[in-house]
Amino acid sequence: DAVEFKNAINKVAYAISEDEARVILTGAHIVTDGMTATITALDGFRLAQTVISCEGEEIDIIVPTRILNAICDAITDGKLDIVSNGIKITAKGEGFTINATTLSGTYIDTERIIPKDFKTKALVKTIDIKNCADSATVASGVHNLVKLVVENDNIAVTSNSETADFHGDVGEMIEGESKIGRAVQQECRDR
Length: 191
Fold this sequence. Notes:
about 190 residues; alpha+beta; four-stranded antiparallel beta sheet; 13 strands; about 20% helix; about 40% strand
């Protein structure tokens, strides 16, 4: 489904690197197994990954940002077919065909970065954690350092700067270890 693909790209696009020194990270890694497509973006600080359903051949490609943007801009509705020989990609949708070259190289093995088991699991409303993180990022100033502390069925989101301090609480259901603190560096971006 073309719209599902477009939404998946929009979910990971913020984590695609703009740094030309690490060219391999200036695109999204798309891996399909015939039933699902895993779309991953990584810029050295952030990692975003989403999985959508799909049909077709297995592919493992890195698509440059400008090509992803062109595909997403062309999508209106309907079906999207993507085929690749590993070097070239062809995307066909309703009223468009885009042929392009993929990025060559090996993408970072994100399976080793994302743990399979967790000591702590938290269930929170996306909008609540997003609003807290956004407010904390604004208050953090130029350093963009936001701290998350998980403790007693609560996630405390804090940041400090010379001009402002922020503290927000988000909590729904937390299982496992508590008193876990972690600093998260986040880049402020206009979206």
